[in-house]
Amino acid sequence: MEIAIVGAGAAAVGLLDALAATTAGNPGGPGTTGTPGTPGTSGTSGTSGSITVFEPSPHLWRGRPYGPDLDTVLVNAPPAIMSIRYQDFGHYEAWLGTRGAAHLDPALGQPLVPRALYGEYLEHTAEAAMATLRAGGWRVRVVTQRVTGAARSGDRLSLQTEDGRAHDADHVALCVGGGTPQDPYGLDGTPGFVGDPYPLARTLGQVPPGSDVAVIGSGLTAVDVVVSLAARGHTGQITLLSRSGVLPHVWQRPVGHRPQQVTAERVGALHRKHGVVTLEDLIGLLRAELAEAGEDFDGFVAELLATETEDPARRLRAQLAAVDDSRIGRRVLQETAHAVGPYAWRLLPEPDRLRLRRHFRLATSVASPMVPVNAAVMMRLLDSGQLVLAPGVRKIEAANGQFRVQGDDGERTPDVVVNAMNPPPRAIPRAAGQLATALLSDGAADLHPSGGLLPADPRLHVVGDLAGGGPFITSSILGIAAQASRAAQAIVTAPDAARAT
Ligand SMILES: Cc1cc2nc3c(=O)[nH]c(=O)nc-3n(C[C@H](O)[C@H](O)[C@H](O)COP(=O)(O)OP(=O)(O)OC[C@H]3O[C@@H](n4cnc5c(N)ncnc54)[C@H](O)[C@@H]3O)c2cc1C
């Protein structure tokens, strides 16, 4: 069997790791930390062939977020949910070992390492998986080329790389990520405009320390920009420009609670019983989870909904004070949004999905919180007045060497504008545009009505944010590991796996 993996970021690492687990016939995968209940993909001992990974970037296995950058660019989540091995919650923590101690977030009591260090973990995991696969008889290689085309040819898929070469495969997994920011205000090429902030080590070098900086967006990337500017000793004004003005929530200290009601098993059981799962069903599960813990569901919901109207600085202060609050509500929502959400989302009727989409900013803010160490810097800058939030931004334009920003509170004229808006989930990344067009015109894939690609051929697989029909929030490592495990399962149990060489 020949497998082609397009892209070498976290999704590709999760897929290689899950494939390696199958060859070793080892249910926990190579080097498992032995977390109880770790399921492996079934049944490929004896299967072998070749795996070719295509990636043009020199920073293999790190994808967009985890390449070399400033030490202030941190992972956004605690170790238990940063494991790229599906359901082995200790895999990343075991790799990190004593190195974690140097990166403890004092409020969270958890190590939050620079993203570049997390990239080393991905690199290590990919290399270990490739070694296991090779020991199991697989040929594994990396082609440092972008894939630009694809077509079905007989019972195989043929990929084309930028150098014009063709590469045939029995299975193709698209692991191309979400891509770089769009340019909604048409500012690309304007002096003083930073279209893609990463790596911040390079882009912030162009920002004069005393300049008036406007950051488009108020999500996690905007937080990265602000915190890194502060660490570089920026003295000028920093303004977060956003339509909603909503900041990410703040992580709370883990309390070791495992959801008992909001689980994939319960959602599956509801689906089997009623043939459908509604938003009310999911709310019912959360209500039951909170009731078991003796917590007030209605109060919790009211508190969440206030995100859309309450002053963001006041909320930030309250959330910093609540890092140690032992109530489980937010913790359950944060974990299950990524662990159960993608599965439940596909079962929801469209009107219920629409209802959730209307709360996109709130959902993203809760599901992808900022780490307390960054929240503390944001609070300090807001308190000193160096950082301000400007909601209700309507227009940003460049004229006569100056930026002009029109918003609810009038006009601003920043010296530098940094784009910190990531593409929405299901956007087709520019680097994979030609490939996606080729797959669509060949009929190997369809466009999902809500964006993203749906394989129309059992030999095509999509892992990551490009997967059509996926949830409306960006995938986390937890969600990507689950998708990668499912894709590995589909590949190794496909009918052609039986006749593998
Ligand atoms: C800035 C940022 C920070 C994040 N931080 C966290 C975090 O701390 N915790 C967390 O849980 N989640 C985080 N996420 C979400 C998620 O973990 C990441 O988005 C994750 O890295 C996605 O992995 P991926 O492999 O799907 O995509 P990517 O990491 O984007 O990798 C895709 C790869 O595909 C390659 N590619 C694209 N097109 C082609 C082509 N045509 N041919 C060949 N190769 C191609 C690209 O060069 C790239 O290397 C973050 C996301 C972003 C954007």
Automatic annotation (TrEMBL):
Pfam families named in the record: NAD_binding_9 (PF13454)
Domain (FAD-dependent urate hydroxylase HpyO/Asp monooxygenase CreE-like FAD/NAD(P)-binding) ranges: 4-177
InterPro entries: FAD/NAD-bd_sf, HpyO/CreE_NAD-binding, L-asp_N-monooxygenase_NS-form
Entry-linked Gene3D superfamilies: FAD/NAD(P)-binding domain
Regions of compositional bias (Low complexity) in chain numbering: 35-52
Positions of the UniProt region annotated as Disordered: 26-54
UniProt superkingdom: Bacteria
Transmembrane segments: none
Name of the molecule in the record: FAD/NAD(P)-binding protein
